[in-house]
Amino acid sequence: MRRRLGPLSRAGTCAAICALATGTTLLGSGPALGEPAPAGHRAAAAAEVHSDLRVIEAEIDPVQPGGTTTLRAVISNDGPGETDAGFAVTVRLPEGATAVGPFFPDNCHPDTEADDLLCHFDTGLPVLRSASVEVPVRVEAGLHPGDQLEDGLVTVYDPDQPEITHSRPFAIDIV
């Protein structure tokens, strides 16, 4: 009795015969065992992998004149690598707003040279993880509903890419 082969069986048989004839393996392409790979097929040297820290959120609730609200900023590491080194975040508040504490992380402190708030994260940040900054903010009592305090800015400084900074602006609405 003669058995008929379907198209997939014929292709598999052909691949096996071709592999035997050329000395290659069925599961991969390239030279047979014992032969060096051509230059174009050799494994590339491991590339240096960096973190990619970004400010993905900088939100603050509206506030009444003279009131207090909280800035919440979220920093993420979009990878492909993690940063083992610590990183820094600065918060520049708009004119008419003052940071009043307590802050998160609790090591945030005013940078007297730049009128900013400086926060340090000493443990680095794994890939696809986030870190938060929370800053209670008081606004001046002489403001009026409908005013907006502009030019707030949250910036992260990535130790793996010191030439690049990522920032996100924010504004405080007075209600």
UniProtKB/TrEMBL annotation:
Residues 1-34 form the signal peptide. The keyword Signal applies. The keyword Signal applies. Keywords: Signal. This is Repeat protein (TIGR01451 family). It comes from Kitasatospora cineracea.
